[in-house]
Each structure stands twice: as C-alpha cells, then as structure tokens.
From TrEMBL:
CDD domains: LysM. This is LysM peptidoglycan-binding domain-containing protein. InterPro entries: Bact_Kbp (IPR052196), LysM (IPR018392), LysM_dom_sf (IPR036779). Residues 138-164 are annotated as: Disordered. Residues 162-212 form the LysM domain. Pfam families: LysM (PF01476).
Length: 213
C-alpha cells in the first residue's frame, strides 16, 4: 500500500512511512432556521466537503521494517514539500494504492512535531479536504451568471510541462537555479526525470530532455 500526493505538474510525493490509520470525515450540510413559537428547524442540504486526516513521521535514517522505499527524503525537505502543497492554491491528487481512495484534494493543515529521543525524525499531522470545481454558467435568455459546483471530481489537473535540454557542463543544481530560481529544487527535477537520468543524479548527459514542471 502506497500513500502519495501528486500535483498538476506531475511531481509525485510518496510518504516514506505509512500511517497506522486514516480518518475520512463525511457530513451532510444543514441550513437552520428559527420559526417564532416553534423553535429551530434543520433543512438538509448537499454533502459537505470530505476531510481526510492522518499522522505519520519522516525518518532521518532508512529502516526496512517500516520505510516503504530506500531513497527516503530528508525530513526537512519533506516538510518543505508539504508546506509548498499547503501554500499552493491548486489541487493535488491523493491516492492510497490498493484502495478506492483516488481523489483531488487541497492541503488544509500540516503540523510538525519534534520529539526528544528521536534525533532527526519529524512527526506530522496532515489534514486534506476533497476539492470540487466551481463553474460559472450563463442562464439561457438572460445576461445573468450563476455559480455551480461540479459534483464529479475533475480528472485532468495536468499543467503544460516545461522542459530543458541538458548542455555540456550542466548539473541539476545549476539547471534548477537558472530555470526555477532555486538550486535546492534539483531533487525535484531528479524525481521527475529519474527514469531518464538513472540512479545517479550527477550523471546527466548533454542532449537529455528533462521535465522541470
């Protein structure tokens, strides 16, 4: 079983340690009205946005007994990735492999905890909310517009990819600095192009076409 978040640019973040449990909260919306002499009355509305929450940790060192893959991210880099997702205004796709959970979401909250005795490890709590697209439609025969919610999750959230052709003397950190303005983004470029580059991120070759976004 694999827990992952993928953005519209194709960047996939796989959580290195699976949470022990995942909570999915479902609620129905209500409008409450007060009628004189009769009290309050609830009028059922549509389903509220689902909330998905779980807790886990980012280990400093690989341990095959609980880590899902060997090349685990540095805990600080992993936290920065989640913070980037939190600040983003665009939806992500949350997938739990082997289950029916495959939904567009936004990151609602991300809390990190550092505990004594676990040097380098970072514990976190993550809360996601399912995302629905709102469309503006124009009523026939009138100039007015109304907002409607697309009840079916949008399946295509992909953005147009930005590419770069490797030149002699290039490195991933150099490309990240020149093209993205941040040399620390080299690891993200590597993850997006791991099949092209291979196991050694320093072994890029002139002529290789890399996806940056």
């Amino acid at each position: 079983m694999e827990f992952s978040l993928t953005d519209g640019k194709g960047f996939k973040f796989v959580f290195p340690v699976n949470p022990e449990e995942v909570t999915i909260s479902r609620q129905k919306g209500f409008d409450t009205a007060t009628i004189l002499s009769y009290g309050e009355f609830d009028f059922p509305q549509g389903e509220k946005v689902k909330e998905i929450s779980f807790s886990s940790f980012f280990p400093k060192e690989y341990d095959e007994s609980y880590c899902k893959y060997r090349n685990i991210p540095d805990p600080q880099e992993a936290m920065n990735t989640l913070n980037g997702f939190l600040l983003s205004q665009k939806p992500l796709r949350f997938i739990i492999s082997g289950t029916s959970v495959n939904v567009p979401v936004i990151v609602a909250s991300h809390n990190s905890t550092f505990r004594g005795g676990e040097s380098g490890d970072v514990n976190f709590d993550l809360s996601l909310r399912t995302w629905r697209e709102m469309k503006v439609s124009k009523k026939a025969g009138s100039g007015s517009k109304s907002a409607t919610v697309n009840k079916k999750p949008r399946t295509d959230m992909k953005e147009k990819k930005k590419t770069y052709t490797v030149k002699s003397g290039d490195s991933l950190s150099k490309i990240a600095k020149l093209e993205l303005g941040d040399s620390s983004q080299w690891s993200r470029i590597y993850q997006l192009n791991k099949k092209v580059i291979g196991q050694n991120p320093n072994a890029i070759k002139p002529g290789q076409k890399l996806v940056l976004l």
